[in-house]
Amino acid sequence: MKTTIKAWYGFWSLRALSRRLVLEAAVALVATWVGLRVVGFRRWKSMLGWFTASARRVHRADSAVLGAAGAIARFEDAAARHLFLRTNCLERSLVLCWLLERRGIAAQLRIGARKEKGRFEAHAWVEVDGTVLNDAPEPHLHFAPFERPIASLKAEIP
User: Does this model's pTM top 0.70?
Assistant: First the structure.
């Protein structure tokens, strides 16, 4: 109970734009949780891309862009930790990629795989200009990433 009260106090102490970002992330996480189960990865990714169609793209990530991307990743992670349902790395990474691209930050969804004790395991994370945003410094290194990053949510314009 104390942690819930503490979380709400922390939420209301944020600036209005940050609260909006947390709420946007929470709604997107719930929608993505449902969307992946109802329409599947490919269609849901396409639907998310439709909602980023008007966003401007930043092509080169400087330190200010990386700082903003890191802050967005922290807010999205906080929203995911306090949701009423548990989200996995794919759901979190899709939402983070969507949040970044809506703000004009070019992000790449990366998916890797490994075989551990006879079991196939996969992991997803987001990179901006080669910098991993939503993963601890090391876990993604234990997964062999697919050759090419999963395309960004927006369709590439030649």
Answer: yes
